[in-house]
Amino acid sequence: MSTIQGVGRLGKDPVLKHVGEDSKPVCELSVNFLNYRKNKQDETQPIDTGFWVQVSVWGKFAEPTSQFFKKGDRIFIVDGDLDQDSFIPQESESKEEVKILQANCNLVFPWTADLESVDYKPRQTDQQRTAA
Q1: CA 18, 103, 2, 115 torsion: positive or negative?
Q2: What value, to the nearest 5°, has the Cα angle with vertex 37 and ends 36 and 43?
Q3: Is the pLDDT of residue 59 over 80?
Q4: How far is CA 124 from its chain centroid?
Q5: How far apart are CA 36 and CA 6, in angstroms?
Q6: How many CB atoms lie within 10 A of CB 30?
Q7: Cα–Cα distance for residue pair 97/27, rounded to 1 Å
Q8: What Cα–Cα distance (Å) separates residue 109 from each residue in 15, 44, 123?
Q9: Is the C-alpha dihedral spanning 126, 128, 130, 132 positive or negative?
Q10: How many CB atoms are closer than 10 A to CB 109?
Q11: pTM confidence score
């Protein structure tokens, strides 16, 4: 198994699911990893030759990931376990196998180069959370 790490853009809004008998949270992301190259005709417009990866964020970071990000956001994936899967689409007349890249990871960060500002507030105590 390989690992993947880098900057990508969300192709659709994150989807939060709960799976298994213990309802473990997982956030599913459709990520286009950016792979710009020089455009010989117009150097001010690089060519994006990125690739798509279906990323799953498991555990305690799944719910925050689903709430914090939206379609179009640039994100940074940390240490994703990359694998390849394939399937035959049921709706398609062609019975050709489609190959997809999948990654499981635990951490996703906003791509900070796109942020204008970040506001921090003090963490609530247990007593403040129960009173709310």
Answers
A1: negative
A2: 110
A3: yes
A4: 28
A5: 13
A6: 17
A7: 26
A8: 16, 28, 19
A9: negative
A10: 12
A11: 0.68
